Amino acid sequence: MAALSPQLKQATGVLAERGEGVHIHGADGRRYLDFTAGIGVTSTGHCHPVVVRAAQEQVGTLIHGQYTTVMHRPLLALTERLGEVLPSGLDSLFYMNSGSEAVEAAVRLARHATGRQNIVAFHGGFHGRTMGAGALTTSATKFRAGIGPMMPGVVIAPFPTAYRYGWPQQQAVEFALDELDYLLTTVSSPQDTAAFIVEPVLGEGGYVPADAAFLRGLRERADRHGILLILDEVQTGVGRTGRFWGHEHFWAPEDGRRLADVLITAKGLASGFPLSAIAAPRELMAKARPGSQGGTYGGNAVACAAALATLDVIRDEKLVENAAEQGTRLLGGLREVAGSHPSVGDVRGLGLMCASEFAGPDSRPDPATAARAQQEAAARGLLLLTCGPLGNTVRMIPPLIVTAEQVDEALGIWAEAVTVAVA
Ligand code: PMP
């Protein structure tokens, strides 16, 4: 009899029979508050009726067109619609299925456009598990150990993780930018450096928000040296952080030019259907050599229809605003819990991307307590995920439709789970 691979590490032990809104109904007859959202994917909640209807209608019309073979209407409509929400000037799109594929597409584009090879990624970043995206991923060695050699031409620079260093934020930013300059002088000269790739909030790496001065520093260096800036908004995009794009917390159009040369989106874009995209200015996108990008399922018609419906729901139900409001409530509640539990060393977040890092008195990571807290929460009906280099951070990423009552319910469970976990 066939069974799933033994390497599968499942976070909750729940067999999901059905999803509805913020809840998963388990085969055990219990209803769970799903604060994982399928790793930040089910942005409009499980099976939102508008998304379900759009997908069902599309299934009866055209399931798969394959857009390098025939064009289809959902793809054209989605492209037009994304044009309304993307930073101005990122007016050319290309679609794939997963975040990793989109990251790889961005790397190909950057190499083609600049004629340079090296990509600078930042320590703690997660960009995927393929051999290219995996080479850019340093959120934990489990994604790399025994797997390499991976894609060459990758240089890792520090990210301003102030808590980890035990420094004020400004010092962490200055250090990160100084080290980047040093790397551009000693390891990867600007003439060899095609792009920087960065997340507005380190996701798998522990929910560490970037910083306005840091991102401004990257943009300045990119401009100075003709290096492209790739923003990986796979986890932070589409309303997750309480702005449509995560980087908008750190960058206003009035600040001058656009922050990203290439923006990557996936996860929440289609409420659970596999869809990702890269967006770039047309003249830049034109530098990818014909046929160098693509994939059989990319821009699938049902996924595009679901994405259009997702964008409608996000606009009509004001979900970006809701993410900001509920995110503030959630973060405040997590801080209160941390206030009475010294084993929670830090609480961080932006919008509905919030986390509690478990650490000993010397800030030493404490993955065991984090895992216990996660399990105790699941036992009380709240599904959560860990993240961070050693899994010592417990994150909360509910669907963007979450209500204040559901946030409070989750916080009540969390307070109990932490109390039991540290006992
Ligand atoms: N980039 C970021 C920032 C991510 O969080 C992830 C997934 N966690 C990826 C890329 C990879 O996406 P996928 O798993 O769809 O390949």
UniProtKB/TrEMBL annotation:
One Gene Ontology MF term: transaminase activity
Classification via Gene3D superfamilies: Aspartate Aminotransferase, domain 1 (3.90.1150.10), Type I PLP-dependent aspartate aminotransferase-like (Major domain) (3.40.640.10)
Signal peptide: none
Cofactor requirement: pyridoxal 5'-phosphate
Superkingdom, natural source: Bacteria
InterPro entries recorded: Aminotrans_3, Class-III_PLP-dep_AT, PyrdxlP-dep_Trfase, PyrdxlP-dep_Trfase_major, PyrdxlP-dep_Trfase_small
Cross-referenced CDD domains: OAT_like
Keywords assigned by UniProt, alphabetized: Aminotransferase, Pyridoxal phosphate, Transferase
Keyword Signal: no
Similarity field: Belongs to the class-III pyridoxal-phosphate-dependent aminotransferase family.
Name of the featured protein: Aminotransferase class III-fold pyridoxal phosphate-dependent enzyme
Organism annotation: Streptomyces humicola
